[in-house]
Amino acid sequence: MTAVLEARGLTKRYGRRTALRECTLSVPEGRVVGLVGPNGAGKSTLLQLACGLLTPTSGTLSVLGGRPGSGPAQLARVGFVAQDSPVYKGLTVAEHLRLGAKLNAGWDAALARARIDATGLDPAQRAGRLSGGQRAQLALALALAKRPELLILDEPVAALDPLARREFHQALMAYVAEHGISVLLSSHLVSDLERTCDHLITLVGSRVRLAGDVDELLATHFRLTTARRDPGSLPGELTVVQAQHTERQSTFVVRSMIELRDPAWRMEPIGLEDLVLVHMAARDTAAPAASRQEARS
C-alpha cells in the first residue's frame, strides 16, 4: 500500500524539551487519518514537520515521496489548515481567493467559488467580521482550491460550536468522497473522528502509542471482566492495555489478534472513544509491540 507520509525514528527537540521522540509510522494513501493525543504529545509538531514548517532534529520524514517543504512543487501538493483557521482579517473573502490564485499555480478558481457559494459566504465581507465557523470554511476552501494530494488539518474546529463543526466536516467529507484525497486530521473531539476517520494514530508522551485502521483496532480491543486476578495470569495472546481492580473483580482492556473464550470471564468490544482514552491514560508511553509492528508495515 502506498504511503503519503513515512516517518522513521522521527525526533524533534526544542532545546532540552523533546516534542516528538523516535516516531515511526506510515500514513496510508486515500485515507482520512485521525491524529489524537493529550496536550503536549507532539501532534502539532508532527503536522508542522509534515508541512515543512519545521525540520527534524533526527530521523527521517517523507511526504508524498519527497522531503517536506523542499520546493514549490512539493508545497503545491499539500494543503494545510492550522489551528484557529488563520486568515487575513483585513482582506475580504474575494481578496483571499485572488491571493490564493496568485500564490498557487494549480489553483482551481471554479472550485474556490463553488465552495464559497455552498457555504453562503459573502465575497465582499472582510475576514475579520466572519464568525469562527465562517473563517474555518474560508480556510478550508483556500486549502482545497490548491487541489492538494494531502490535506493536513490541525485542530481546525476545536473552538467551533457543534453546528459549525458538523458543517465543516460535511464539507470536508463531501470533497474527500468526490476527489479521494488523503487527509491527516488532528483533533481532541473523538466523536468527530468517529464520523470521519478510517485510520487512527495516537501519540502519547511524544511517541506513537497506537496506529492502524479503525475497524481493525476496534475488532481487536475488548473489555474483559472476571473474578479478581493478576494480569500475568491471563493467556499470553492477550496484551493488557489497562487493568482495574475491586476487592472481588478485575476489569481489563486487552488487545487480542485472535478470539479467545473462557466461561470464567465476560469479554465485550469497546468503542473508539474508550479505545483512545485507555491508550492515552496508559502509563507506559512506549507503543505496545503489536502497534510498533503496525507502524512499520
Automatic annotation (TrEMBL):
Residues 5-230 form the ABC transporter domain. The keyword Mitochondrion does not apply. InterPro entries: AAA+_ATPase, ABC_transporter-like_ATP-bd, P-loop_NTPase. SMART domains: AAA. GO terms for molecular function: ATP binding; ATP hydrolysis activity. The keyword ATP-binding applies. Keywords: ATP-binding, Nucleotide-binding, Transport. Belongs to the ABC transporter superfamily. This is ABC transporter ATP-binding protein. It comes from Streptomyces uncialis.
